[in-house]
Amino acid sequence: MSPAQLPAQLLTQVPTASAPRPLVALISATPASIPPVTAAFADAFPDAVLWNILDDRLLPEAEQRGGVTDELAQRMGRLIEHAVREGADAVLLTCSLYGPVTAALREAAPVPLLPPDGAAFDAVLRAGHRRILLVASNSASMNDSRQRLLQQAASEGVQVEVDAVVVPGAVRPALEGDQEALTEALYSALLPALAEHPDTGAVLLAQYSLAPAAPALASELGRRIYSSPQAAAELLHQQLTAGVR
User: Fold this and answer.
1) What is the mean pLDDT of each run of 10 residues along the chain (245 residues)?
2) Closest Cα to residue 208, out of 119, 83, 125, 105?
3) CB 174 within 8 A of CB 244
4) What is the pTM of this model?
5) Which residues, 6 or more positions from 71, have their beta carbon under 8 angstroms from its beta carbon?
6) What is the pLDDT of residue 7?
């Protein structure tokens, strides 16, 4: 996805004057992502004003078209442009499948522009884990997240094994906000995977909609569970309060 395929205005747009409390635009492709990221900001960055921008056709249309097409990437780009033009102090995508859209614009954007799981990737690699279990509820999100995690590790000269677990049974409870059923679906899938690879250092939940299960899973499995919303909220708190991009 080249910059030419995305809104050129974003590259030169200057945001409007910031409010006393930073405005963070959250661009989501499913309503299920909104509660987890809201909870993460309440914990890590309560001073932020959250602005939810939702296009709930982005995921179904990507599925119908066999992935994120150039047209869909441009559509996400227009949502990013809208957020910046209307004064957002930072923009965070909450859908892992659309994370690569930020790569073409991140350096030129006038405000911090974060992919959904970049901060979580940073955290898990910085912690020195050499075997990571990546969890998603669908294959498309899994394949995309795994590829980008391995690419980032390679770019940093880090050798890491990334095992994958796809849990289709997590889709319904995530959408319905049934945290108990979500935790049970993930726990049932993770237990045999961890038994197969006992040297797994960490579990990374690849989607925002899975994040509510993180605390219970950490307690039940006795492993470090990384979730993208928490890592992103912590990073944006650092960037917007310290002026670090």
Assistant:
1) 50 52 96 94 97 96 93 96 96 92 87 94 94 94 91 94 96 94 98 95 94 96 94 96 65
2) 119
3) no
4) 0.83
5) none
6) 54
Q: What angle do CA 57, 10, 91 make, to 5 degrees?
A: 60
3-116+231-242 CATH, one of 3.30.565.10, 3.40.50.300, 2.60.40.420, 3.40.50.1860: 3.40.50.1860
The pairs formed by 83-86 with CB atoms below 8 angstroms and a separation of 24 or more are: 83/25, 83/27, 83/51, 83/53, 84/10, 84/13, 84/15, 84/25, 84/109, 84/110, 84/111, 85/9, 85/13, 85/15, 86/16
Helix (H) or strand (E) holding 178: none
Cross-strand partners of 60: none
Residue 128 confidence (pLDDT): 94
What does the alpha-carbon distance between residue 52 and residue 61 come to, in Å, rounded to a whole number?
20
**119-227: which CATH number, 3.30.450.20, 3.40.190.10, 3.40.50.1860, 3.40.50.300?**
3.40.50.1860
